[in-house]
Amino acid sequence: MTTAYASANNTADVETLHKIGNAAEVANETRTFTKERVAELQEGVDEGNMSLRLLSSIGALMLIVVSVLTSFADLLMINGGSFLFGCYGFILGFVILILEYGKRVPAFGNMESKLYKNMGCLKTVWGRGCLLFFAGTVEFAQNDFINYAVGIYLCSVGVLFILVGRSAARKTATARRNLYTSEQLEKMFVGVDQDGGGFITKSQFGDLTVELDMDLTRREIEIAFRQIDVQNESRIDFSAFMRWWNDEATEKLDSFIPPSDMA
């Protein structure tokens, strides 16, 4: 009977180990899936999809063509104000094309990098949406049916970009928060806190974002750190970091990059 009891215990132990092993495997698979999903969503925030790019490109080409035609007509009629708006429209249309095809057209590559350097918000879908919307409003300034039509189209596409970009940003924020537990985050925070004082600097915060696979630029790190460091002490503690992390952190980071931070 003792032997049978021991055998039963051994069988139960084996089953328990199998369950633990299966649970660990499921956890690893879930973590891998979540990371892949975060990467997909982040790509959605940064690039958008082909249909949006196509809509944007059509709008840019329409803007360039209409701007050239109206500017030429205004130049002949010596209409300086309208001519300037036509020039603005041409420039905006060209900028939109650079943003959409900078990675595909070598000639646009350097120009795209310069745009990103000076206007980091244009890296995101919603940022490009704002640009499209602004370009559309410029067209409304010209008293012509064709310009109105192009303006309505650009504003509509711009709103679509903004809605898609913001939605993707919110999903990314949620996915990132679900990827790590508070205990894991605290362990990472302590890991970059070199002196063990319970606070980290902006540089150490940058190291923490690398650990979290957030892929933030230098400007984005500075903006995020400013959001956390509300007391302007040039350092943050874990509780302040967690408030930022749990308060739609990534969404807020994607929402606006102040011009003052572009220097």
Automatic annotation (TrEMBL):
The answer to whether keyword Magnesium applies is: no
**Cellular component, GO annotation:** membrane
* Chain ranges passing through the membrane: 52-72, 78-99, 120-138, 150-169
Q: How is this protein positioned relative to the membrane?
A: Multi-pass membrane protein
Q: What Gene3D superfamilies does this protein map onto?
A: EF-hand
> What GO annotations for molecular function exist for this entry?
calcium ion binding
Protein keywords: Membrane, Transmembrane, Transmembrane helix
* Source domain of life: Eukaryota
Q: Which InterPro entries match?
A: EF-hand-dom_pair, EF_hand_dom, Golgi_TVP15
Please report the stretch or stretches of sequence annotated as the EF-hand domain.
180-215
The subcellular location is: Membrane
Kindly provide the name given to this protein in its UniProt entry.
EF-hand domain-containing protein
Organism expressing this protein natively:
Cylindrotheca closterium
